[in-house]
Amino acid sequence: MQDLVNAINNTSEVNQELIEEYFKRNERRKEDEKWLKEYRKLIVNELEKLGRDVLDFGNIRVSVTIPDTSKFDKEKVLEFAEKNGFKDKVIKEELDEDKLVQLIESGEVDLEKLKEYAWVESTGSPRVTLKEIKR
Protein backbone atom coordinates (compact mmCIF):
# COMPACT_ATOMS: atom_id res chain seq x y z
CA MET A 1 0.00 0.00 0.00
CA GLN A 2 2.82 2.40 0.84
CA ASP A 3 4.27 1.77 -2.65
CA LEU A 4 0.97 2.99 -4.13
CA VAL A 5 1.05 6.11 -1.95
CA ASN A 6 4.66 6.78 -2.97
CA ALA A 7 3.84 6.24 -6.63
CA ILE A 8 0.94 8.68 -6.44
CA ASN A 9 2.95 11.25 -4.48
CA ASN A 10 5.74 11.11 -7.06
CA THR A 11 3.55 11.84 -10.08
CA SER A 12 3.91 15.25 -11.65
CA GLU A 13 0.22 16.17 -11.37
CA VAL A 14 -1.01 14.46 -8.20
CA ASN A 15 0.94 15.18 -5.06
CA GLN A 16 0.50 15.72 -1.34
CA GLU A 17 -0.24 19.43 -1.81
CA LEU A 18 -2.99 18.77 -4.36
CA ILE A 19 -4.62 16.08 -2.22
CA GLU A 20 -4.52 18.31 0.86
CA GLU A 21 -6.08 21.21 -1.07
CA TYR A 22 -8.76 18.89 -2.50
CA PHE A 23 -9.49 17.63 1.00
CA LYS A 24 -9.79 21.18 2.42
CA ARG A 25 -12.09 22.30 -0.38
CA ASN A 26 -14.22 19.17 -0.02
CA GLU A 27 -14.60 19.78 3.72
CA ARG A 28 -15.48 23.44 3.03
CA ARG A 29 -18.06 22.30 0.45
CA LYS A 30 -19.70 20.07 3.06
CA GLU A 31 -19.85 22.98 5.52
CA ASP A 32 -21.22 25.29 2.82
CA GLU A 33 -23.93 22.78 1.86
CA LYS A 34 -24.98 22.48 5.51
CA TRP A 35 -25.11 26.29 5.85
CA LEU A 36 -27.05 26.68 2.60
CA LYS A 37 -29.59 24.07 3.63
CA GLU A 38 -30.18 25.79 6.97
CA TYR A 39 -30.59 29.29 5.52
CA ARG A 40 -32.60 28.11 2.50
CA LYS A 41 -35.34 27.13 4.96
CA LEU A 42 -35.19 30.56 6.60
CA ILE A 43 -35.45 32.36 3.24
CA VAL A 44 -38.34 30.20 2.06
CA ASN A 45 -40.21 30.70 5.34
CA GLU A 46 -39.74 34.48 5.26
CA LEU A 47 -40.95 34.79 1.67
CA GLU A 48 -43.96 32.60 2.52
CA LYS A 49 -44.78 34.89 5.49
CA LEU A 50 -44.65 37.87 3.13
CA GLY A 51 -46.79 36.04 0.57
CA ARG A 52 -44.11 36.55 -2.07
CA ASP A 53 -42.21 34.21 -4.32
CA VAL A 54 -39.84 36.90 -5.67
CA LEU A 55 -38.12 39.59 -3.67
CA ASP A 56 -35.19 41.89 -4.45
CA PHE A 57 -32.42 42.57 -1.93
CA GLY A 58 -30.22 45.27 -3.40
CA ASN A 59 -28.99 43.89 -6.70
CA ILE A 60 -29.91 40.29 -5.84
CA ARG A 61 -33.29 38.85 -6.77
CA VAL A 62 -34.47 35.93 -4.66
CA SER A 63 -37.02 33.58 -6.23
CA VAL A 64 -38.62 30.58 -4.60
CA THR A 65 -40.19 27.95 -6.81
CA ILE A 66 -41.76 24.73 -5.71
CA PRO A 67 -41.55 22.00 -8.33
CA ASP A 68 -44.69 19.93 -8.89
CA THR A 69 -43.66 16.32 -8.35
CA SER A 70 -47.19 14.94 -8.58
CA LYS A 71 -47.56 11.61 -10.33
CA PHE A 72 -49.96 8.74 -10.80
CA ASP A 73 -49.90 5.83 -8.35
CA LYS A 74 -49.25 2.92 -10.73
CA GLU A 75 -51.13 0.39 -8.60
CA LYS A 76 -54.23 2.58 -8.49
CA VAL A 77 -54.00 3.25 -12.23
CA LEU A 78 -53.94 -0.52 -12.83
CA GLU A 79 -56.95 -0.94 -10.54
CA PHE A 80 -58.76 1.83 -12.43
CA ALA A 81 -57.86 0.24 -15.77
CA GLU A 82 -59.15 -3.14 -14.61
CA LYS A 83 -62.41 -1.67 -13.28
CA ASN A 84 -62.95 0.26 -16.52
CA GLY A 85 -62.09 -2.56 -18.92
CA PHE A 86 -58.88 -1.35 -20.56
CA LYS A 87 -56.21 -3.07 -18.45
CA ASP A 88 -55.16 -5.37 -21.30
CA LYS A 89 -54.50 -2.29 -23.47
CA VAL A 90 -52.03 -0.70 -21.02
CA ILE A 91 -50.10 -3.74 -19.74
CA LYS A 92 -46.91 -4.83 -21.45
CA GLU A 93 -44.84 -7.96 -21.05
CA GLU A 94 -42.03 -7.84 -18.51
CA LEU A 95 -38.98 -10.07 -18.26
CA ASP A 96 -39.31 -12.60 -15.43
CA GLU A 97 -35.74 -12.51 -14.14
CA ASP A 98 -36.33 -15.29 -11.60
CA LYS A 99 -37.54 -17.63 -14.34
CA LEU A 100 -34.54 -16.70 -16.50
CA VAL A 101 -32.17 -17.57 -13.63
CA GLN A 102 -33.92 -20.93 -13.25
CA LEU A 103 -33.51 -21.61 -16.98
CA ILE A 104 -29.81 -20.74 -16.80
CA GLU A 105 -29.27 -22.90 -13.71
CA SER A 106 -31.05 -25.85 -15.32
CA GLY A 107 -28.94 -25.49 -18.47
CA GLU A 108 -31.87 -24.66 -20.76
CA VAL A 109 -30.33 -21.24 -21.51
CA ASP A 110 -26.63 -20.91 -22.31
CA LEU A 111 -25.37 -18.06 -20.12
CA GLU A 112 -22.34 -17.36 -22.35
CA LYS A 113 -24.50 -17.06 -25.46
CA LEU A 114 -26.96 -14.84 -23.62
CA LYS A 115 -24.10 -12.70 -22.34
CA GLU A 116 -22.57 -12.44 -25.81
CA TYR A 117 -25.93 -11.38 -27.21
CA ALA A 118 -27.34 -9.09 -24.51
CA TRP A 119 -24.65 -8.02 -22.01
CA VAL A 120 -23.99 -4.26 -21.81
CA GLU A 121 -20.79 -3.14 -20.07
CA SER A 122 -21.35 -0.08 -17.93
CA THR A 123 -19.62 1.80 -15.13
CA GLY A 124 -20.64 4.76 -13.04
CA SER A 125 -18.84 8.06 -12.69
CA PRO A 126 -15.62 7.99 -10.70
CA ARG A 127 -16.04 9.06 -7.10
CA VAL A 128 -13.27 10.49 -4.98
CA THR A 129 -13.66 10.05 -1.25
CA LEU A 130 -11.35 11.74 1.22
CA LYS A 131 -11.19 11.14 4.93
CA GLU A 132 -8.82 12.63 7.42
CA ILE A 133 -6.57 10.01 9.00
CA LYS A 134 -6.60 10.25 12.79
CA ARG A 135 -3.17 9.42 14.20
Structural overview:
- This protein is mainly α.
- The chain has 2 domains: 1-68, no CATH class; 71-120, no CATH class.
- 55% of the residues lie in helices and 6% in strands.
- It is built from 6 helices and 2 strands.
- It has a two-stranded antiparallel sheet.
- The chain is flat, with a radius of gyration of 27 Å.
- It starts with a helix and ends in a 17-residue tail after the last helix.
- The mean pLDDT is 87.
- What does the overall shape look like? flat
Helix content: 40-55%
Helix/strand class:
mainly alpha
Calculate the terminal CA-CA distance, rounded to whole Å: 17 Å
What is the ordering of alpha helices and beta strands?
A: HHEEHHHH
Residue stretches low in confidence (pLDDT < 50, at least 5 long) are: none
On the 0 to 100 scale, the average pLDDT is 87
How many strand units?
2
What is Rg? Answer: 27 Å
Q: What share of the residues does DSSP label as strand, in percent? A: 5-15%
Main beta sheet: strand number and arrangement? 2 strands, antiparallel
DSSP summary: helix tally: 6
> What is the number of independent domains?
2
Which labels suit this protein?
2 domains; 2 strands; about 5% strand
Condensed summary:
The protein is mainly alpha-helical and 135 residues long. It contains 6 helices and 2 strands; from the N terminus they run ααββαααα. It has a two-stranded antiparallel sheet.
